[in-house]
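Why do we care about 3D structure at all? Because function follows from shape, and shape follows, mostly, from sequence. That is the central idea of this module. The next example makes it concrete: a single protein chain, its amino acid sequence, and then its structure expressed as tokens.
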Amino acid sequence: ASRVVGINSSNISSGYGAVFTGENITVFDSVFVGDGTYGIYVDSSNNTTLRNITVISATNTGIRVDSSRNVSVSNSSVNMSFTGVGIGGQSGNITFRNILVMNAGFIGLNAQAVADSEFHDFVIQRATTGISMSSGDNNFYRNVTMNSVSDGVDRKSTRLNSSHTDISRMPSSA
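And the structure:
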């Protein structure tokens, strides 16, 4: 098992920031600052845990998960990235809990081709689109709040389980 504790990275320049690939990876109490494409990139991983993570100023996506299973991200924040959180590549069984996305240049949460995943206590403050999702089944969104978001939820070919959904928008003045 890999454990990474207390990374304080600045100047993530132009690459993928911190890249995690493999099995049983745990990263916690870490800060990633810079202008890399991604702040954190979890790729082709299984059983990955990210906890108490802060990402600031990734040029594309603050936290990106691709082609991965059983990923848990909790108590984390992303500030000043084009997309706050991005998930794709047929990822599944992903859990995001207690997440704050601030000042996303475009999308707060971009979930494409992700299934059997959960998003709890997810706050998006200031983004053009709060959530963009497509091609995913059995995803649950609970206590998702969007403040100062131009377009709330953009759904494309997805089955959103409405019996387990609580997405709210606060007025821009909130």
